[in-house]
Write a structure and sequence with these properties.
Blueprint (H helix, E strand, L loop, with lengths): L1 E4 L2 E2 L20 E2 L4 E4 L11 E4 L14 H9 L4 H5 L18 E2 L2 E3 L4 H6 L10 E2 L17 E2 L4 H4 L3 E8 L2 E10 L10 E4 L14 E7 L8 H4 L4 H4 L5 E8 L1 H6 L13 E7 L8 H5 L18 E5 L12 E5 L2 E3 L8 E5 L10 E5 L5 E6 L2 E3 L4 E4 L4 H13 L4
Parallel strand pairs: 3-6, 4-7
Antiparallel strand pairs: 1-8, 1-22, 2-11, 4-5, 9-17, 10-11, 10-13, 11-12, 12-15, 13-14, 14-15, 16-17, 16-20, 18-19, 19-23, 20-21
Length: about 400
């Protein structure tokens, strides 16, 4: 059985337009966003070409922005010249300059970068897939599940699955898209700014580093507009609850060390948590307050035989889907072991395709209430099933580290 991580690339902005799947990766964190790159109101209409650096406070006088020397120096320590970065240097994916380690993550906000058109481009199906097989699997693996047809969620999505949304990011292969879920923040109850997704949606794994321009759009295309209708849609229609940039991110060390663009290496640790901040400052409300809810995360989910059913949500973008519609699959899980020394993964029947990576898997907790127990990580080329990591001590450590980073904020 051949399988692959389920994120999706579109147009190769950083690599000459080539198309291929994004690499899975589980790694680490982000330097908090200390500045924004703000698109001006005139020029070519390209937010990258018109970007102008700004500090956290508004500009004054002649409109020029002064970035404090300590912030500029801190960025330079990470190889970032902000003047070059805002003019497109973020597209430089030279291996020697690609920030990789957990503490290296930097994601300056570029206001206006994720406009409706660019979001749509991130859903263009990628057909240049390289495959691996599962012939060397060890440990407990149940028979392959029967495919379960993904069902479209009826609009508005916010009324049905308010915690679901899309993650957009840039990689060497181009503009990419994944799915994600708003989760609770133990350190800030009722005011979470935390989002759960797959590790390969934030980091390229063993052969690369952190992806760039990572942003979350809750309830993307909330009214389920068609692709034709979205061509003329406003930003409010595409992103009704705004664009939220990842000012911090964390994934597992195992994913960073093992994750790759195809196959199952690192998949049992393919999870990530990002902390977000609104692109335009917003009203002071947290993400949880803005969307109205957040899911708890269960790091002690029952063994597979005791799980009645799991519901997976996501925005599949590879054929026969177009990436604009939220879908769900519901199935009783089985087990998938990639390596006997790694945790066994959950596996369900589901026909969702690339773009659904990172989408939340929800099951009833001990109290009977829904909780996040996994996320979409890998699936076969023929899209008959999905597999997601079991969330244990490593996942809890990733989650807690992000929560504690922003405790009391």
């Amino acid at each position: 059985m051949r399988y692959e991580p389920l994120s999706l690339s579109a147009r190769g902005e950083g690599s000459g337009g080539g198309r291929r799947r994004s690499s899975p990766v589980l790694a680490a964190v982000a330097l908090a966003s200390v500045l924004a790159l703000t698109a001006t109101g005139c020029g070519s209409g390209d937010p990258e070409a018109n970007a102008q650096a700004s500090a956290s406070s508004p500009s004054e006088g002649d409109g020029k922005i002064t970035i404090p020397d300590d912030i500029r120096d801190e960025l330079k320590e990470h190889g970032i010249d902000i003047d070059k970065w805002k003019n497109g240097d973020w597209k430089n994916w030279d291996r020697d300059d690609w920030l990789r380690e957990a503490q290296d993550y930097i994601n300056p906000i570029i206001e206006g970068l994720w406009d409706p058109e660019r979001m749509r481009e991130a859903q263009d199906p990628d057909r240049g897939v390289q495959d691996s097989d599962l012939s060397g699997d060890q440990g407990v693996t149940d028979p392959e599940p029967a495919p379960v047809d993904a069902r479209a969620v009826s609009p508005t999505y916010h009324d049905k699955v308010p915690v679901a949304g899309k993650v957009f990011f840039d990689s060497p292969e181009g503009t990419m898209v994944c799915s994600a879920t708003v989760v609770e923040d133990p350190a800030n109850p009722g005011r979470s700014n935390m989002v759960w997704t797959a590790g390969h949606c934030v980091h390229a794994g063993r052969s690369g580093g952190w992806y760039r321009n990572i942003a979350f759009v809750p309830s993307y295309n909330d009214r389920a507009l068609s692709a034709a209708e979205l061509a003329g849609a406003t930003e409010d229609e595409v992103a009704p609850y705004g664009v939220w940039w990842a000012d911090w991110a964390r994934t597992s060390d195992q994913w960073i060390a093992q994750g790759g663009p195809t196959g199952g290496a690192g998949a049992p640790y393919d999870f990530a948590v990002i902390h977000v901040t609104p692109e335009e400052g917003g009203t002071g409300k947290s993400l949880e307050e803005t969307v109205g809810s957040a899911l708890p995360v269960n790091f002690a989910a029952p063994a597979v035989p005791r799980v009645e059913t799991i519901t997976a949500s996501g925005y599949p973008a590879a054929a026969p889907f177009d990436g604009e519609t939220l879908y769900q699959c519901q199935d009783r899980p089985g087990r998938l072991s990639i390596n006997a020394s790694d945790p066994t993964m959950y596996r369900i029947g589901c026909t969702m395709t690339g773009g659904s990576s990172g989408g939340g898997w929800v099951a009833a907790g001990a109290d009977g209430e829904p909780a996040l127990v996994s996320n979409t990580s890998i699936g076969p080329v023929n899209a008959g099933w999905l597999a997601g990591p079991r969330l244990g001590e490593v996942a809890e450590g990733v989650y807690d580290s992000v929560s504690q980073k922003f405790a009391g904020q």
